[in-house]
Design brief:
Shape: globular
Bound molecules: ligand BES, manganese (II) ion
Low-confidence stretches: none
Helix content: 25-40%
Strand content: 15-25%
Number of strands: 19
Oligomer: single chain
Length: 459
């Protein structure tokens, strides 16, 4: 079993309470990228990350974009012949609402039972910060890193990373790397460190249905007028067939199957549908017939309703025929589906299933490409050794149903392999009330990522 170098381990142990205090400062900044009232906080978080990178010993700058800024830190002291790694993370967080469901306030971090509770603790501030501390361990103990490292932290991941692709395209020299490393995902289970082999992509839509020019009395008019809420329900219902397949014409055309080897690996993971049902609190599961649960989650595309709004939803009863209805609907994509192509197919499907008597406007909000790794090369071998050194156990290879839109862009624009090694855990409530990160995983993750640079440069 590989071992983490003593000096790095000792540094992280000696500085543990200072490091955790700094993480708490980071978590106190409500950098909610989706909410304009938090724009100043989001900027403050960017500046906080810049100072943190500088304190670790990197040269850092905040770069303005059309949206929230990008922070880049650099340490190039290993010279032009040493490899360069690019570390990516995001300093923005999801909205904290509904606030009344939090046990302690979302931006007042608190440790309970070995868990750091705060919005952004695991997604992704804690995981970004453990990388910064891993770099600091090298630079403060040895005055150097064994390879060049560039860190890029964005503030728009939770709103679709709309400005990051062009930032990368305009800064290929600054960001050029032999490998990209990202910790913004979870382990399969506690004590089972994990490397991701795939991510799903995304196409996100809003549907706005307009019926009559104003709300109507449902007795005086109802029965002779197409109801926008019912029309929307019908459009949404038309998106799946009786076997749970997405019924949008052409939806599966570009799906390329996962290899037998990857599918066999998934079957070896310790998953049971019983435990999964208990975790989420349902009596039975759904989805596309003919696939296992992990296949459905990691290897199959979906179409999900994220929200619906129409008519009267207050106390008691109000007899009204609503003039409008709205839904948010998003498709998760797998290789080689293209978000823009899916948007065309989706719009055509909606148009085809819109009854006369209402009009529907489909807005494509954002999208991201799916991604699949080939998991071969020095960064993956180094990660396996580094993670084994910190966790005392070889990482497992897992798929992922979530999306990180920029991953495909990094690979395509920088032509570098992307290593996704995350330290979250199932049930950590990312995007939900009571988000937490395990203190133990924060500590072990920092050690694993410190060991990564020794292993990568030595390989
Ligand atoms: N870190 C998550 C994605 C993720 C979750 C990866 C769990 C692996 C395991 C990321 O911050 C996220 O929430 N992504 C969004 C993307 C969207 C806003 C474009 C998602 O998947 O919904
Ligand atoms: Mn994230
Ligand atoms: Mn997220």
């Amino acid at each position: 079993m590989p071992k983490i170098a003593n000096d790095l381990d000792a540094f992280l142990t000696q500085h543990q309470s200072r490091i955790e205090g700094e993480l708490f400062d980071f978590l106190r900044i409500p950098s909610v990228s989706a909410q304009p009232v938090h724009d100043a906080d989001t900027l403050a978080a960017a500046e906080w990350v810049k100072r943190s990178l500088e304190q670790a010993g990197l040269a850092a700058a905040v770069h303005a974009t059309a949206g929230h800024p990008v922070v880049v830190g650099e340490w190039r002291g290993a010279g032009p012949h040493a490899p360069t790694a690019l570390v990516y993370g995001h300093y923005d967080v999801q909205p904290a609402e509904p606030l009344d469901l939090w046990t302690s306030p979302p931006f007042e971090p608190e440790v309970r039972n070995g868990r750091i509770y705060a919005r952004g603790s695991v997604d992704d501030k804690g995981q970004l910060f453990l990388h910064i501390k891993a770099l600091e361990a090298h630079l403060r103990t040895r005055g150097k890193l064994p390879c060049n490292v560039v860190v890029i932290a964005e503030g728009e991941e939770e709103v679709g990373s709309t400005n990051l692709e062009s930032f990368i395209e305009h800064n290929t020299k600054l960001l050029a790397a032999d490998a990209v490393v990202i910790s913004d995902s979870s382990m399969f289970a506690e004590g089972m460190p994990s490397i991701l082999s795939s991510l799903r992509g995304l196409s996100y839509f809003q549907l706005d249905v307009q019926g009559p020019s104003g709300d109507l009395h449902s007795g005086i008019y109802g029965g002779a007028v197409v109801n926008p809420a019912a029309a929307l329900a019908g459009i949404i219902a038309s998106m799946h067939d009786a076997n749970g397949r997405v019924a949008i014409e052409g939806f599966y055309d570009d799906v390329s199957p996962f290899s037998d080897e990857v599918l066999a690996g998934m079957r070896k993971l310790p998953h049971t549908d019983d435990a999964f049902r208990r975790e989420i609190g349902v009596k039975s599961l759904g989805g596309e017939n003919g696939f296992t649960t992990l296949e459905k989650l990691w290897t199959r595309p979906t179409c999900e309703v994220n929200g619906m709004l129409s008519g009267y939803t207050g106390d008691g009863a109000k007899t009204v025929l609503p003039a409008k209805a709205m839904a948010k609907v998003s498709c998760r994509l797998v290789p080689n589906q293209d978000p823009a192509r899916i948007a065309e197919l989706f719009e055509a499907h909606v148009a085809k299933h819109t009854p006369a008597g209402v009009t529907v406007k489909t807005t494509y909000i954002h999208g991201g490409r799916p991604w699949r790794a080939d998991l071969a090369g020095p960064i993956f071998d180094a990660a396996k050794r580094a993670v084994s050194a910190a966790f005392g156990r070889e990482p497992v290879i897992v798929g992922e149903g979530g999306s990180i839109p920029v991953v495909g862009d990094f690979e395509r624009i920088l032509k570098a392999p992307v290593l996704l090694v995350g330290f979250g855990l199932p049930g950590e409530n990312a995007h939900a009330p009571d988000e937490w990160m395990s203190v133990e995983n924060f500590r072990l993750g920092a050690r694993a990522m410190a060991a990564l640079w020794d292993e990568y440069a030595g390989s």
